[in-house]
Specification:
Elements lengths: L20 H9 L3 H18 L6 H7 L5 H21 L11 H5 L7 H17 L2 H12 L9 H15 L13
Helix pairs in contact: 4-6, 4-7, 4-8, 6-8, 7-8
């Protein structure tokens, strides 16, 4: 080999050029591919099993096992009832990502009187069972998809337990969180 300049001792690209420092730092901080696959597999399992969308706060809490299946069904039922209640009152849905239920079916947008009575009784029941703080947190997390930061999780769980019991969604035994 010809005598020439000494090479710098740095990491090199496949072409033989010295790597830029940004590329070296980025590779060291990346999540290992095996961990990413593990997280995605766990998310797919929960999505397939429960039908929970991981793009929402309730789904993320279910993925981290902070909410039970009973809590998720109570939150979903409350969110659906709340959005129909908003439609009955004639106000827009509070969630920007919410779908227009009447547009999906191609209906004129009128809600049947039986549904109106059912939704009014459910929302009246929710208002009588929940405290104002519980109601606000439940609407913010389940309907508006806000975060549970600031210690709202215990209040959310309490509100979901009360809604579940008041609406007869699940038995009380299903809503007890497992410590393990």
């Amino acid at each position: 080999m010809a005598k020439g300049r000494n090479r710098k001792l740095t990491s090199r690209e496949p072409s033989g050029r010295p790597q830029r420092e940004a590329a070296i730092v980025r590779r060291e901080t990346d999540t290992p591919p095996a961990r990413v696959r593990q997280i995605l597999a766990a998310a797919r399992t929960i999505v397939d099993r429960d039908g929970v969308l991981m793009g929402y706060e309730i789904g993320r809490l279910a993925l981290s096992r902070r909410l039970t299946d009973g809590h998720v069904s109570a939150a979903t039922s409350f969110a659906t009832t709340y959005q129909i209640w908003c439609a009955v009152l004639g106000i827009p849905s509070p969630n920007a990502r919410a779908q227009d239920i009447s547009a999906i079916r191609g209906e004129s947008g009128e809600i049947r009187p039986a549904v109106v009575d059912f939704v009014k009784s459910r929302m009246g029941n929710a208002n009588s069972v929940l405290s104002s703080r519980e109601y606000d947190i439940l609407v913010n997390v389940a309907v508006r998809d806000h975060s549970t930061a600031g210690g709202a999780l215990p209040v959310l769980i309490s509100a979901l337990d009360k809604i579940s019991a008041a609406w007869g969604l699940t038995s009380a035994a299903e809503n007890v969180r497992n410590a393990s």
